[in-house]
Amino acid sequence: WVLLRSEVVQQIMDGRKFMDFQEWTGLARAKGLQGKLFNICTSFLHETGAVRYFGSLLGARSSRKGAFYSTVFLDVQWMISVLKGLVRHDRHALQDFFSSTGVDSLMLRRV
Fold first, then answer.
1. Given phi > 0 = left and psi -120 to 50 = alpha, else beta, which region is 103?
2. pTM over 0.90
3. I need a labelling partner for 111 at 20 to 30 A (CA). Which of 24, 32, 36, 96 fits?
4. Residue 77 has pLDDT above 50, yes or no
């Protein structure tokens, strides 16, 4: 998990804010984490606030669907800012925020 956490820090320094779960799985496999160890590591990093993942680690058996549940948030502070924008219902301010952070147009369209 230490190697994966180090990679998360590097990704954030490179400007990454989030990644989809498949990419997260590939990143973990590259660091030698698979199966139960992968699930434990992902849960640990979520519980300690290093990343945020709200989906299920049960895979296809999960009833949760949608972009939010299939996204691993690397930059937790950024995710909090986004959620605050949603709660405030200030769509224009949220769009400005996404535009200023350089997030790809796919995430901007979701807003």
1. beta
2. no
3. 24
4. yes
